[in-house]
Amino acid sequence: MDGMKLSFPPESxxxxxxxxxxxxxxxxxxxxxxxxxxxxSFVFSDGRKLNGATVLLRYVGRSAKKLPDFYxxxxxxxxQIDEWVDYASVFSSGSEFExxxxxxxxYLESSTFLVGHSLSIADVxxxxxxAGTGQRWESLRKSKKYQSLVRWFNSILDEYSxxxxxxxxxxxxxxxxxPVAAPKSKDSQQAVKGDGQDKGKPEVDLPEAEIGKVxxxxxxxxxxxxxxxxxxxxxxxxxxxxxxxxxxxxxxxxTNPAKESNEFVDNLVKDIGTLGIKYEKxxxxxxxxxxxxxxxxxxxxxxxxxxxDTPREQMQKERMDGIDSKCRNHSVEENLKLWKxxxxxxxxGLQCCVRGKFNMQDPNKAMRxxxxxxxNPMSHHxxxxxxxxxxxxxxxxxxxxSLEGITHALRSSEYHDRNAQYFKVLEDMGLRQVQLYEFSxxxxxxTLLSKRKLLWFVQTGLVDGWDDPRFPxxxxxxxxxxxxxxLIQFILEQGASKNLNLMEWDKLWSxxxxxxxxxxxxxxxxxxxxxxxxxxxxxPDEPFVRMIPKHKKFEGAGEKATTFTKSIWxxxxxxxxxxxxxxxxxxxxxxAIVKEITKDEEGRVTALSGVLNLQGSVKTTKLKxxxxxxxxxxxxxxxxxxxxxxxxxxxxxxxEVADFVNPNTKxxxxxxxxxxxxxxxxxxxxxxERKGYFRCDVPFVKSSKPIVLFSIPDGRAAK
Length: 719
Known about the structure:
Belongs to the class-I aminoacyl-tRNA synthetase family. Glutamate--tRNA ligase type 2 subfamily. It is built from 21 helices and 31 strands. It has 719 residues and is an alpha/beta fold. The longest helix has 16 residues.
């Protein structure tokens, strides 16, 4: 498309064409000043022209390289796309607008996209037609009238928000029903640039990185399970290693025996594998304890470190006030004598620590004689009681990074003030410097990422363990129903940004929905409490079974056996919405007319009676109902919904977790499910029609024990 220009009359920009060009990052110059032009046109560098909005849209669909299947991947899909592109013009007809909304809403009840399993120009045409009506569509978006259509519209806007909001701000006037031309400025003459062109890539390259020579490390402390914050660090290491054809090693920073265990090591290895991270080897900081002790002694002999027996509280106050320790000028002999006491773990040694000798008046408090070693007689999970002293992270990390040949150490921006300390430690040690690269810590609303606070929830029994589906651990969110592909996409879309943002979960769950919706099987469930029996007087005298697809658009989901009976179960909420004489649609069967409604003394519906009307049109009915046959083959279900563990969007350091615990984080609803769910396996993801997406946590074992399904958020609302 190089050298091509889009011209159109100033009063009527072709919104769908501009949206398609922006999404596909097509290098086209926009000229909205062509007053003599009556229709939108592409003018090519050799003078050739194409005219008409739908012609231009199809051209973009065929030539876009950034978006696969933008015009379908086979003749049938392309023909379907043509149908929708032509249909989009109906939305500009005032009298037909709501009918058109209704038709597309119905179509999208069981679909994520209009054609196939990815965005196409069919979606662009209908989306732009709606957006172009301005306030009329905005009013409907806020109502609950066309929920499937609104869900589809919002998911596209959410996925491509930066690009689409820019287009809308430029070409659609708020409160207007008409698109408006861009201002006549330099901007309107510039090429359309795809703001999402580099989506999923970190914003900045690694400094001084050379192809084939980059060596990175992912260094978790084995004091908890891997959570979504760690996953960001791990996946960025993976990304940069692949980008520079380098390597990643996994190193366990096991320098604090009070918090660490082999259980955490084993599960961290498991979770790293779940993320698909390929690493060269696994190392441990404890592998280097002898060398670290030698280095500490070397620094003491050189006058670059000293042993301090100042009480901890006083030491902290002196550091804050910039006051030198009374031990700062100990002789080498005195330091080594106390060092030996520390190594022995004696009573005298337990009073001491080793500190680096920097500058106690440095404005950066991280440079005020940091602690290098502490005396700790606790047993180490890996090497037992061999040592009574352990290095701090600030001392061990730069040493091992340099020794292992790490070229770039990725650290979250919370360590920024300690970067100068990192470089100074390596300088005093006389070791090779390592490049530091910062990225922002991942912060999510109503979410704890402190391992200490997560451990508190585990120890108090408020959760079932580190893999609890309410936990932000990798095992927890996978158990909730998140696909790892969604997590990877979510994290890489943020890139290596240094901006500190408090993010919503909705974006992550929206990505997850786009992955599971095109392939997950559909099943039916009815809430057990107060369910209502609907008797069809002309229904089948003998039950019969029909095989129907589990997913109408994905053959790979297989088929399910649906039993049709004279009496069927409906949910009370559905039964209560029906009027006598009303025609309703029974999904996957046909229409029925309700003749009688029985209620109890409190006015609750207890039974319905009616007749089938299988020739009736599903387009004319207001209610589309899920139902189950009245047979003994139905399975018992427990539908489980979860809420956030805390009630405050972001806990501050001084906040006590116990003060913000959400008392209601788990809701279980008993239901009946179709007999096909007996075949579900643990981990299977399904959609319950009209209820949402669920992951099977406990499969069918026996009739008396319910199948446990966990509700998967879909990104439409915080859950």
